[in-house]
Amino acid sequence: xxxxxxxxxxxxxxxxxxxxxxxxxxxxxxxxxxxxxxxxxxxxxxxxxxxxxxxxxxxxxxxxxxxxxxxxxxxxxxxxxxxxxxxxxxxxxxxxxxxxxxxxxxxxxxxxxxxxxxxxxxxxxxxxxxxxxxxxxxxxxxxxxxxxxxxxxxxxxxxxxxxxxxxxxxxxxxxxxxxxxxxxxxxxxxxxxxxxxxxxxxxxxxxxxxxxxxxxxxxxxxxxxxxxxxxxxxxxxxxxxxxxxxxxxxxxxxxxxxxxxxxxxxxxxxxxxxxxxxxxxxxxxxxxxxxxxxxxxxxxxxxxxxxxxxxxxxxxxxxxxxxxxxxxxxxxxxxxxxxxxxxxxxxxxxxxxxxxxxxxxxxxxxxxxxxxxxxxxxxxxxxxxxxxxxxxxxxxxxxxxxxxxxxxxxxxxxxxxxxxxxxx
Length: 424
Fold this sequence. Notes:
Blueprint: H1 2-19, E1 22-26, E2 31-36, E3 43-47, E4 62-63, E5 76-82, E6 88-95, E7 101-109, E8 114-122, E9 138-141, E10 148-153, E11 159-164, E12 176-179, E13 189-191, E14 198-202, E15 208-213, E16 219-225, E17 241-244, E18 251-256, E19 262-267, E20 274-279, E21 296-299, E22 303-310, E23 313-320, E24 323-324, E25 328-331, H2 348-356, H3 362-385, H4 394-398, H5 403-409, E26 422-423
Antiparallel strand pairs: 1-2, 2-3, 3-4, 5-6, 6-7, 7-8, 9-10, 10-11, 11-12, 13-14, 14-15, 15-16, 17-18, 18-19, 19-20, 20-26, 21-22, 22-23, 23-24, 23-25
Helix pairs in contact: 2-3
């Protein structure tokens, strides 16, 4: 009996660690990471402000207060930028407990790194093909005009896109087909965000396929990377990330293989051929805890950071101007980490409790909270019916002085070179 309990616990641990949601992106301040606690389903965040108490200047983990609860095991994606006021504005995308795609808009005050929810929107309300609840999410933002593009798998296994652009008056609407056909790997989904936006997925033969955005706004299938002869590749459960060089010369694909090492596909400068390499130096990239492990990547113009779990610690592996730096552990075992709760000003129950007094009792407080939530949801529905755009701080986008800098912060790619630490 004891052995059975241990087996079931270990099986549950493997399932949760394999599905742990992790997202990262770069801003002018530093990398921002969002992570889902597998036990509570809370979304936690940390920011590399340079003044944080953690390794590499990350702030302590804090809970992100959300209006719409996430699904446990949700796909996670995000992007962000530094506003004209010096603070960080982030967009976090996740799957709700009811199976919708949610956009949570957050403002993070610098230098404290404290993030407060500014608003939420169900961006998939006009989707007609359904959303696979186990899908990974990918997001790109290529500047003010192009806006946000979110990619996901529908219930039939096709890759779809929904889009928002305040500048072009495009609100979150109906889906646009990206890659048709049964895509068996719901975690194998990536978009590079370059001038020639390309989306990648895994097809029914477990090959990597891609589609490029055309001038007409539709997607055209472009490349199939045969993986049958690629060592240690298992496309049925794999996390893909991708980018394109800032000078638009090379495209790159990354994933962690079945041997728990990082592998890369990279194009030639004319995009006519792909090469393959494995990073087998464990000082630069310690072995991941799981084969095909989930991870997140944050990119700037010249630096890309990979965040993943090794020995149950969160590791940061860094590729800087084509050269790998020694990996560092930025957080220990997250199971026992101390989490900062949201400030009381952003918590409706705490605010009511303080205003009405402790003696009023939890049931009455809960009633006030429920009544407030009814009015809030009704108000949200009215706004949606009027096609009001989500509360994106467009003003702060426009206050960014240098548009090239803004593109850099919104995830524009990195030029990668096959360094000596890689082996074919």
